[in-house]
Amino acid sequence: MDANVTEVDEFWLFLKKMEAGWGATVLLVPCVVVLAAALLHVYALVSGLLSKSCVRNKVVLLSDALSTLGKECASVFHEGGARLILCGKNWEKLQELSNDLMDASDPSMTFPPKLVLLDFGQRELLPDSIKEVLECYGCVDVLILNGNLKVKAPVYMLTLEMDKLLMDNNYFGPVALVKGVLPSMTARRSGHLLLVNSIQGKLAVPFRTSYAASKHAVQAFFDCLRSEVDELGICVSTISITFISSRASEKQKGTDAKSFWSYLYTKKPLGISSSKAANEVVKTLSNKRKEVLMAPSLPKVALYARSFFPNVFFAIMAAGVKDSTTTKL
Length: 329
Known about the structure:
Largest sheet: 7 strands, parallel
Order of helices and strands: HEHEHEHEHEHEHHEHH
Strand content: 5-15%
Shape: globular
Structural class: alpha/beta
Oligomer: single chain
C-alpha cells in the first residue's frame, strides 16, 4: 500500500514538473520569436546601409536614365552619394530629371549629376558621346546598361531595317559603350559592368524573333567578357528580368482562366516593379553576383524545360501560336 502511494506521488510530481517545463517553454517561445525578428530587422538595416555605401563617391553611368528603371536607379544612387552620369536621348528631360534629384536631396551629401546625350540608334555619334562621358570624371566605376528597344510582330512583318535598329539599340550600342569605358577600368584594375537584360536573352518565344536575337547576342557578349576581364579585377553582372511594370504589384481582377502557354505571352502578371528591380541592381553591385534571374515561377519552369525538354517546350510554343491565330480569326 505504501509502495503504491509512493508511486502515485512520484507520478504526480513528474506531471507537475512537466507542467512547469511546458509553462516555461510557452513563455520562452514569444521571446525567441521577438529576438529573431529584431535580429532580422537589424540585419536588413545593416544590409541596406552596406548596399547604399557600395556606390558612395563612385562614378556611376546609367545608359538610359530616362526609362522607368533608369529614373528609379538614378534616385537610389543619387541618394547613396554616387557621382552620377545620366545618359538619354532628350536633353530637356535629362535636365528635368537632374533638377528633381537635386531638389529632393541634401546638396551637402550628394553630387550634381552630369548629363550626356546618348542614342544607341545613332552609331556615328557614339564616339563623341563616349568621349564626353569620360571627360566628366576621367573614369567610370560602374556602368549600368539598362537601355531597351522592344518590338513584337510576326517575322514576315519585320523589315531588315527594323532588325538593324534593334541590334543597334540592344547590342551594338551597349557593346560600343562597354569598349569605350573598358580601357579606363583595365588601367585602374577595377570596375563593374552590369547589364539589365530581358529574360528573352535566355528564353525566346514566338513573335519576338529580332528582339530575342538582339538580347541573346548581348547576353553572349557579357558571358564571354566576364571570363576575359575577371583577372583584371573587373566584375561583370547580368540581371535577366521579364519586363518592368508599374502595375506589377497590383492584383489582376476579372481575368479568365488561361492555358499554360498563354502565361508565357501575357505581360501583365509577369512584370517586375521598378523599385524591386532597382533594389536588385544595388544588391548585385554590393555582393558582386555574376548572374541574377528575376522572374515568376512559370518563366523559370519554361527556361528549365527549354534546356532539359526542348521537344516538349517547342510543342507548347507551337500550340500556343496556333491557338492564338485561331482566336484572332
